[in-house]
Specification:
By secondary structure, the protein is an all-alpha fold. It has one domain. Helices cover about 70% and strands about 0% of the residues. Helix 1 packs antiparallel against helix 2, helix 2 packs antiparallel against helix 4 and helix 4 runs antiparallel to helix 5. It is globular, with a radius of gyration of 14 Å.
Length: about 130
């Protein structure tokens, strides 16, 4: 997938996340779960593509990050802040299915999930990943 396509997808997910926050996070936990997961994964993909660390045709799958071992096997090369990025993605994926498929969660848990997303989003922004 082209970087432009990833950026378009990130923008779409950011819009859905914002709309979900505006409407009430408890009523939109599934939208938040899906879109945080996919946006965070696409941000990593843009970062890796821009730094020529993966082939242009390579696609990352969010479920890889549910296991740190699997994530490290799939991304078996070094890059700046790799452990920090993979740990945040792992936390996001660990909570994703709970939000997407589980019973209604507490507002506190959903807010923590959004904080994880803001943390990784800020990290990628600091590395020059832009989607505007």
């Amino acid at each position: 997938m082209k970087i432009e396509d990833h950026l378009r997808n990130i923008r779409e997910s950011l819009e859905v996340i914002k709309e979900s926050i505006d409407r009430g996070i408890k009523d939109r936990q599934r939208n938040i779960g899906f879109n945080v997961s996919v946006a965070a994964t696409e941000m990593l993909e843009v970062f890796l593509h821009r730094n020529n660390l993966i082939n242009p045709g390579a696609i990352l799958k969010h479920e890889w990050f549910a296991s740190l071992n699997n994530a490290n096997e799939r991304l078996n090369f070094d890059f700046e802040d790799k452990n920090k990025i993979l740990n945040i993605l792992n936390e996001i994926e660990t909570k994703r299915n709970l939000l997407c498929y589980g019973k209604p969660q507490t507002e506190e848990l959903i807010e923590e999930y959004l904080e994880l997303f803001n943390k990784i989003k800020s990290l990628f922004e600091s590395k020059g990943v832009e989607w505007n």
